[in-house]
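== Sequence entry ==
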Amino acid sequence: MEHGASVTSLVIVIIAAFITPILLHRFKLNIIPVVVAEIIVGLIIGQSGFDIVEQGSWLEILSTLGFIFLMFLSGLEIDFSIFASRKKKAKPENQGTGAPNPVWVATIVFIGIFVISLALSYMFVWAGFIDNAFLMTLIISTISLGVVVPTLKDAQMMKTTIGQTILLIAVIADLVTMILLAVFVSIYGESGGNTWLLLLLFAAGVLFYYIGKKFRHQSFVETMAKGTIQIDTRAVFTLILLLVALSETVGAENILGAFLAGTLVSLLSPNPEMVKRLDSFGYGFLIPIFFVMVGVEIDIWSLFTDSRVLILIPLLFIALLVSKIVPALILSKWYDKKTVFGSGFILTSTLSLVIAAAAIGKREGMIDDQMEGALILVAVLTCLVAPIVFKKIYGRFEDENHKTVVSFIGSNRMTLPVVRELDIHAYETHLYHTKMDKIDERISRNCFDIKELDGYDVEKMKELGVFEVDLIVASTGDEERNAEIARFAKEQGVERIIVRVESPDLSQEMKDLNINVFSVFLSSKALLKAMIEAPNVVDILTKQDSALYQINMNNSVYNGIHLREFPFTGDVIMVRIFRGKDSIVPHGDTELKMGDRLIVTGSHEYVEELKMELEYCEWC
């Protein structure tokens, strides 16, 4: 019977996790993060609500695995290429003169956060709320990377200077507080190990990194990564369990091992398809169970029985705000008050590490059940309030001055006409060519600013800043050289890469690395076939009066409206809608959503009218 109750509770939790995002979508509550909604649902079915979930071995194991996998994916989300001094062309319209370096600004802001958190922690100790200032400092200074990243993406701020700065502050906070939490367990935990033993864990991490770096591009590994073997995914789970086991062996928390595993995989630049599979498994199964169980285990009503805890909740919330907003005032040197206040507010969001710290504090006898529940409740409140206030302040961040920066490596009859036709308001182009390769001097002198290179040496090009761009187009006359440039650009963290190769084997290798490939032979064949079978499609692509246009849906007035009810009339046809990674064929029942990219065709006059209607509005 006990086993049956455990399975029944697991089924209830799984169903709750399944219907939560459906309810959010149905009632258009997209402003609430899914993880917060899962905790709220857990409160409803758990001790604070109907109390229909019983603890059991199934739920305990899966919830623990969910937490471990959440920490792994948090480490995997860190893009270490942002620590490199890469030149970003995006500059927000509300930014003052002299764009700051995001790395050192983020470091200074986090130091300020940590110092203020330490001072506030001693105040909580002095007031008798908690006995350990170290633990309270970690709770106040931590920032939820899992809330910051999607919020910045939704606001279209990931490529802006202020967006990079906010992201870096969250990354540094996540890394430092995670390591310090392990040190805390080693020092204060009854069963903890010695602090120096943590060096063994990091040494093992370095060893695994070099092993992975050596074998990741081996042909036999790439072969076994397909079909039913999926050796890359097996390697990831093996790495997680090895580092989790080693972490517990040296007396640290298992989540530190999981987080370290995630950072190692991120450093190795994993295949995007594999990352997508890991995300699907984690956020589709294990992680929702963990967050629902967080809500299940909180007894809100017991918090009202302790006046000390009731006083702590608003005081801790204020402390979280003060510890983030005050250091963020440093940004006022470059940004306006709205930007500074919004940045400080989104940095207030905190969740996963607070849950971990609260669980550890309770286990070590430093806090009781009521205090643990209060800490988690405040963390949930920050995740509810911070994104909402941030979105109210910013709306949807639009950067009118942003241009996509493109480096064309190889200036020839293939690339020069394309450069000439690119919109100068949307693209900033840089052309590179070797002195040895001859091109039409008259054309280059009159029409293009071509930078001459001694050779296509990738390290020398790196020194010249060739790879500090949004897009690389490698189109020299040597496909092997193009492939070498593309691989190096990938390692440098260039977001998009287009490479010209002709051989099928090399083309497949580039595609496996998620690099876009174009081929003169295949392009000519495809165009000829299209002219024979679908001449009207070719007309759309080549004739200016019936070209394809992209329109970004930024006007909230039309958010959620069905195409059949769309009031705009004119000589415009919607061909395709891109929503995130999804490609949607428009129908009458299709709803327009904020952030949609509409591919349309029609007369230039009507397209411009529609563009003005959808892309520019009073609140933008």
